[in-house]
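Entry 14. Ran structure prediction on the chain below.
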Amino acid sequence: MLTKALNRGMRLWFIMVTLFITSTVNAAVDAQEAPTIFGDVTISPQFSPDPLTVRGMSGGSISGNQVGGRSETATGPCTGFVDETPDHTLALTSKFDYLKLQVQSPEDTTMIIKGPGGTWCNDDFDGKNAGMIGEWLPGSYQIWVGSYEKGKYLPYTLKITEVK
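Output, structure tokens:
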């Protein structure tokens, strides 16, 4: 009888340990695969994974030209509406000869980026989604993702890649 109870207890303990280990491993894998939400990102050339993705919610009550300080830049118009504070900060540890940032959203988005060398705005880079492409200097970049319509908040994914 004592042996039977001991065996039952050992089996129960083994099952509990197995469940604990399995749930811990699954939680760690999920955390590694989940994209950052409204996060700050630091990258170097040949970063991994590529593309790197961060998520957020576009929109706000401040006009894009107010945040951008102008109505137009070489990369596009400063349109739409954003929050007062940037959605993301992108830190580049060194120069990138080519880097592409592209918003993916179900509706019309805009983008404003402030960093070394100036301010850049964009609307409708790919369809109704904003994006930026080109050579990037090392330093810190503030990124706002806006909605074309005031008061409209849209989920988005910002994809960062070195692939042409």
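The chain has two helices and 14 strands. Will compare against last week's run tomorrow.
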